[in-house]
Write a structure and sequence with these properties.
Elements: E1 7-13, H1 20-32, E2 37-42, H2 57-68, E3 74-76, H3 79-82, H4 89-100, E4 105-111, H5 112-117, H6 124-130, E5 132-136, H7 143-157, E6 161-164, H8 173-181, H9 192-201, H10 211-221, H11 224-244, H12 248-257, H13 266-275, H14 282-286, H15 292-304, H16 309-316, H17 327-338, H18 347-356, H19 358-375, H20 382-395
Parallel strand pairs: 1-2, 1-4, 2-3, 4-5, 5-6
Helix pairs in contact: 2-9, 4-6, 11-12, 11-17, 12-16, 12-17, 15-16, 16-17, 17-19, 18-19, 19-20
The structure holds adenosine-5'-triphosphate and magnesium ion.
Length: 401
């Protein structure tokens, strides 16, 4: 059916997954600009995105279709995922124009980040000629940057760009994928039916270990206070993993288990270590709290089937440190000392240092541990001294630029 005066909104994106930020922007655009309908068009092969990480097109389309089913004016379109090759918006707009009739007015709805990039798209002159643009503010994209881009697009291409008056929502697909990867809730970030779809297929998860169940079991072994500490260590480890370029999920798993044996009594710790065949040196025998590192690692291995040696090593040595510490070892040791519930003198300095020089931060944590042990007139574990010596050699070189 052709109706020449129709006003159609178009929302393109990877929708990996679609979320309430997309839906709220589209609905506000529909209302404010009197659109007859909004087409949601998941990109087939997005020119700007790294293909490997993008969920299969059919899945993204299904999620999009589920998300828009409840709104009479919304429709999911598969035109880009059906078109072979890379998807270019210019071609998509031409195709829609062709289908709906030349007089149909197209309104491309885009977040500020996408508007700022439109210059770099293929044939921007064709894009700006074929449609008006409705730009939605997005947290993280400075207003001035957007204004500059818009002014330039108007001048260079005669672009018609309108700002969408609606509160910006700080939701992104990247954030949703990351939250799912570390078992954080995404409820109310996206439609419930899309969340169910994701959960049923376990999208965006790496499922070697059932971490949802593991978190429940570990938290039941710990007091509320200790579990809060663990959650702080999780958050900080994941943040540091991101900064230093190691797998976030691995850092997350390591942090979940790191203290699982912490609250066993001293006798129980020593008994379980003997039972599990963990060799303890004399210092650890005389300070059984030190045994919670090796014991937590062994419990993670035997009760939770964690078999990744890097994870187990980081847990094993998170209290004492060790020689030749890996990035993961340093991250856990540092996060354990500096997570938000910790509160010793000088902690702010270490927190700041951790963001720019992990070796220096690890050294500061080790020094703090050593000073604390000495203040209690206890023996310092030789591994801590060795680790500190190594770290002092490296910390000068480790400044991130
Ligand atoms: P990713 O983090 O994977 O890039 P995304 O959340 O940016 O995902 P896309 O599928 O890349 O979502 O975005 C499709 C379109 O929707 C883009 O124009 C983008 O700017 C816009 N958009 C995404 N999230 C929001 C939001 N919260 N508010 C307004 N517009 C948004
Ligand atoms: Mg995006």
């Amino acid at each position: 059916m052709r109706d020449d005066n129709r006003r159609i909104g178009i929302m393109g994106g990877s929708f990996d997954p679609i979320h309430n930020g997309h839906l709220a922007a589209a609905e506000a655009a529909r209302r404010n600009f009197g659109l007859d309908s909004v087409l949601f068009i998941p990109a087939g092969k997005a020119p700007h995105k790294n293909d490997g990480a993008v969920t299969r097109a059919a899945r993204r389309f299904e999620m999009t279709a589920l998300a828009v089913a409840g709104n009479l004016y919304f429709e999911a379109s598969s035109i880009e995922i059906e078109r072979p090759g890379v998807s270019y918006t210019a071609d998509t707009l031409d195709e829609i124009k062709w289908r709906h009739g030349k007089k149909t007015k197209l309104f491309f709805i885009a977040g500020a980040d996408a508007v700022a990039e439109m210059f770099t798209w293929k044939s921007p002159e064709r894009v700006f000629k074929a449609c008006s643009v409705i730009a939605a503010a997005r947290p993280g994209v400075a207003g001035e940057t957007l204004d500059r881009q818009i002014a330039a697009a108007r001048e260079r291409y005669g672009a018609r760009i309108f700002m969408l008056e609606t509160p910006p929502l700080a939701i992104s697909s990247t954030d949703i994928r990351r939250r799912i990867q570390i078992e954080r809730p995404v409820r109310y970030f996206l439609p419930e039916i899309v969340e169910q779809y994701i959960n049923q297929r376990r999208l965006y998860r790496d499922d070697r270990y059932d971490m949802e169940a593991a978190e429940r079991r570990v938290s039941s072994k710990l007091s509320d206070k200790r579990w809060r500490h663990t959650m702080g260590v999780i958050d900080d480890s994941v943040r540091l993993a991101e900064i230093y370029g190691i797998n976030r999920r691995k850092a997350y798993i390591t942090a979940v288990f790191h203290d699982c044996a912490k609250e066993l009594s001293s006798e129980e710790k020593l008994r379980r270590c003997d039972e599990l065949g963990i060799q303890l040196d004399n210092i650890t025998r005389s300070q059984p709290d030190l045994a919670h590192g090796p014991l937590s690692a062994e419990i993670a291995r035997t009760e939770f089937n964690v078999d990744d040696p890097e994870i187990l090593n980081a847990i094993r040595f998170h209290t004492t440190g060790c020689e030749q510490m890996s990035l993961l070892d340093k991250i856990l040791l540092t996060a354990d000392c500096t997570e938000p519930n910790r509160n010793h003198a000088g902690i702010e300095e270490i927190r700041k240092t951790a963001l720019i020089n992990l070796d220096k931060a690890t050294a500061l944590c080790l020094r703090m541990k050593i000073a604390y042990t000495e203040s209690k007139r206890q023996m310092v574990h030789p591994l801590s001294l060795k680790a500190l010596k190594e770290m002092e050699g490296m910390e000068e070189m480790g400044d991130k630029i």
